[in-house]
Amino acid sequence: MEIVEGIGIGFAVVVAAILILFIRRALVTRSGGIIRLGVRVTTVLDGRGWSPGFGRFVGDELRWYRMFSFALRPKRVLSRKELVVERRRLPEGQERLSMPADWVILRCTSHHAPVEIAMARSTVTGFLSWLEAAPPGAASPRVASQDWPAA
């Protein structure tokens, strides 16, 4: 009887964890402005260290939430005022195995620290438009180079 109770408790814990993940995602994504977005969290091994998630545009910030996390707060916040896109590239080597085929990787700097983000090719245009949008008279380059290779 104790084994059956243990299995039942374990099953209840797993169901509760899955339910919490869905509730968390619903709370974070409730107001729209969401994109699928991968962020490279470590560069120890070439082509590895990518974490899936989603980004939410809130004013001048892009808030990135890990897909498989219980946290209600974003794991990383990128400010439009401090973010500059340095280059754009296609996934290489191991990266091609960890992300969809139509994704593009953008190497950016934020707070003078590099950050790599990956998103669908169709999302890049909207992201760059958001990044370059500024109030009248406050124009400054947010994209380091306009002569990117075709992705």
From TrEMBL:
UniProtKB keywords:
Membrane, Transmembrane, Transmembrane helix
Q: Which InterPro entries match?
A: DUF2550
Transmembrane segment boundaries: 6-27
Q: According to the lineage, what is the superkingdom?
A: Bacteria
Any one Pfam family here would be DUF2550
What is the recorded name of this protein? Answer: Uncharacterized protein DUF2550
